[in-house]
Predict the 3D structure of the following.
Amino acid sequence: MSGLDQLAQALVSGASMGSVYALVALGLVLLYRTTRILNFAHGDLGVAGTFVAYTLLTQLRLPFGLAFPLALVAAAVIGMLVYLLLVRPAKNQTELGLLILTLGLALALGGLDALVFGTDNKLVPTVVADRIIRFGGVSLSLVSIVTSLLGVVLMLALWALLSFTKLGVAMRAVAQREDVAEAMGLPVRTVLMATWAAAAVLAAAAALLFAPTTLLNPNMMLDPLSKGFVAAVIGGMNSLPGAVVGAYILGVLELLVGLYVSLEFKASFAFLVVVIVLVLRPHGLLGRADVKRV
Amino acid sequence: MKRLLALITVGAVLAFAQAADPGVTDTEVLLGSWGPQSGPAAAWGTVNIAIDAYFRYLNDQGGINGRKLVLSSRDDGYDPARTVGAVRELIDRDNVFAFVAGVGTANGQAAMPLIKRAGTPWVGPATGAVVFTEQSDGLIFTSFTDYVVEATLMTRHAVETLGSKNIAIFYQNDGYGEEGLRGLEAEVARLRAAGYDVTIGDRVSYERGTTNQGVQALRLRGSGADTVLMFSDPSAAATLVGEFQRLDYKPQMLASVTLLDPALMANPAMQGALFSVFLRLPSVIVGEGNGDPIADQLYRDVIVAYAPEIARDPFRALAGIAFAEPAVLALQAAGRDLTRESFVAALKSIDGYDTGLYHSLSFKDGYQGNNSVMLLQVTPQGLRPVSDWLSL
């Protein structure tokens, strides 16, 4: 295998991992810019959705095409319940209090998954039967192509939701000034509930696309969640395009570092990138400074 | 006078109590253990359920030398900090006679100083780390073929039987993975000295808990290795073989016993891979007619009869029995007059025992009692044995 082929292969592999990071980061940023909550339970919301999908796929033997959307619906419902039962009653909490609340939720969801589904590893079927497709010296698997495409479709759907629907405009309005949005008669609570649902759907989509490439267990999303956070910070915590850009940069850079620098350094490299970005561009690559108007 | 008599009586009782070791009465022997019944490794909780079932099975046959075996087991959630608390309680409050099994390398390492300070014998740690035999101090007796020996035997089989010329290793960057690497390096050096044409293609590690193995797969393929040894966790292995498939790279894979995970073996990308095991396996794992009669009997009479709830996890269930087996043998051999001293002496006298779950168990030459593995291959029908017992 030539050096150039190896580089091309690394770019392709990095980009497919970048899609998973991007979905995680998008969910985190969507929620953060609307509610100012850093959601540590994001990964566990995704895993919960994946367990639903796993049950539908293996117990009820539904096809992936049906199990996938149903699991996303389940994730949306879980997201709404989290908002209604936990976040809304705690609305007077400080940002730190809400952050602790999501940490607690992460532990509780992890425990619940273990209780209901067990902690043993589970093999999740792939979206389509796998096939290898070659482009010159680079080989791609059909599964990773479909996975990446599904990721892009979901990102486009989010963009369309925010840009062209009333709900999307309302979400953006609440994100900018919640008090003004409320004064203008926007149903802020419904908007917030929808935001939680959308974030949970993104989390579940990321976990669902990631699960077939590894083994499903309650801790599956720990690493992708931390990488999603890094991607979000690189891109700017309040910028959705930034989250996507940050995710793909991270996915590819990680592989290049592992390939050309050192494997041991690969795991901690992401966090070095965060430090560099925060020093040079404190609001991330595409983020904007948070201006507090008095 | 009455007071004097009372004092003498109390003194006599105390003297008698001191003479007997903790955890032994006329009717019972109390053995301690820990294992995760919750947390990330809860599946390994099967080990302790199996030991408890094994003890109840033996007790129903009259116990050992007229004493019933009682297991006091604590859930540590696979958290070494909790293992320490559990072990302290087992020593100070429950007064256990000895420890059996105990799941986890880090957990065992956390517990080891406490166990040694109390002078409590510890038989069959449920981990293949060499540290427990290397630091046995005459108290720890292991029967899980250690990872260095496992990698050595896998490498030897690959070169001598499968004709491998270029072997690479995929390993977790910690004590477990590094022991696999140690075994590979030493054995390749020995084989080269013996005239074999074999090289180590690459040494590729990953950090525990990370999930993207894309680079690792690229490096392994780039090394041109025809054989890849795997000392990882099941999730990392699943990700790696997925990448192998994508790269259309098909080396012969040889996986450590820790990867013997039903979900991983069901992964289509694992077809043809070899797994090593250090104990005899029943038909329920290796297919009707291929099972070992000893393993079949224990699976049926102990697991199915006494703990049917773990029957669907036969490997970990039988491993539990296997970890307790040397302790039971030694309790038998020590006779009715049981002390820790006589128990340890009985353990040391086990030599070439081959009618249990191990191919051959000996503590005559050291504290590592088992140095054999057998290789199984993943086939469309399930796991099938493909080698005889391989021994050092």
About this structure: The longest strand of chain A covers residues 132-135. Chain A touches chain B at residues 1, 6, 9-10, 13-14, 17, 114, 118-123, 130, 132, 134, 139-141, 144, 210, 212-220, 222-224, 251, 254-255, 258-259, 263-264, 266-267 (CB under 8 Å).
